[in-house]
What does this fold into?
Amino acid sequence: MSSTKQHQQPTSAAFFIRLFIPFALAFFMSCLLRTINSVLSPTFIETFHMSASNLGMMTSAYFLSFAIAQIPLGVCLDRYGPGRTLSGFMLFGVLGCVVFAAAPSVTFLFIGRALVGLGVSGCLMAAYKAFGDWLPKEKLPMYNSLESFVGGVGGMVATTPINAALGFISWRGVFLALGGLTLGVAILLFFSPRHPDEVNVGENIQQQFKGTLKIAVSGKFWRLAPIAVFGQAIYLALNSLWIGPWYRDVFHSSPENVPNLLFICSFAITIGYLINGFVANFLKAKIGMKVINVTLISMSIYTVVLGLIVIFPQYGNILWPVFVFLGPFSLLTYPIFSSMFDAKLAGRVQTTYNMLVFIMSTVIQSGVGWIIDMYEPMADGSYNPQGYKVALIVLVAALALSIIWCLFYRKDKDEIQY
It folds into this structure.
């Protein structure tokens, strides 16, 4: 069959199922496994007598292995294609779920969590590559938004539905079930369509590092990097762990109600994923607003909302959903980065950005725990609200400084056009 005919196949329902569904389910599992610790954190604290810093370090192992995997992931995607690469990676996720389910100590929880992060580290990038290989450019925003939407639904399932499942099976049983689902997705991915032009080529690790180094020392990259990295890393780190304990320890919500509040947050993120690109395109088409300006405005509001959570914690049930809804608008920096560099560097720009995001997510998730542990726990054993307050103030300051940096650093040399 000719390459032209292959490109026409995505119009059929059967091909859509074979192409889109496996990658969408993979991102669904990625977001579910990323968010689940926010709901299960009270169980882990009780079972393993974990401090806030231990909880943060264990949960952040997901982001740490995610970050480490980015450069070899790029090599594998080029050499072996998105379907087979992601299928192989997700087997580590299966192993991670099993190790996590059987963990006798915090150390094994850390190992299991790191394996899970490694397993799902390629879900989004592999999907973007697969869609880019098969689909015309004008269809990519729709497919990418749908992919993000399905991932957001995965984050929603990690809240109230998972909490309800705990009424029937233990948390260890939940992770064994998730391991089985991850294995099923890995099998689907292995049999997903392989592009006719896909060949076993691509740059080796040394070449990848050279390209990454070129980007990493670029002044124009660092004009945008702080706001892009902090904007994404902060909501990922907070939503995947600390918002749940905050609702319990600062908002004083009942344990039964926390998963419901997290469900609302995950729903807000899902809507943010779905509409961020459409909002940016609408404003660009109607009033000529550049995407960088949409990003700066949305991230400024995002920073203010996080500050309001510090000042008015009694309104956290309203402010946290607004905050996490705005978080996905940081993803608008992906196409901005691509527009700033030569097309042949686009993939490495994205993996460099991704690597920094997940390194920073690791630092933030662990750092919040360390700050909380600086304050004496409350009489009932809960974490001290003052620790949360100080940690969030630090994050507000980091966001504000990143916005100021983007506004003024190298503006006379590297005006962002997109």
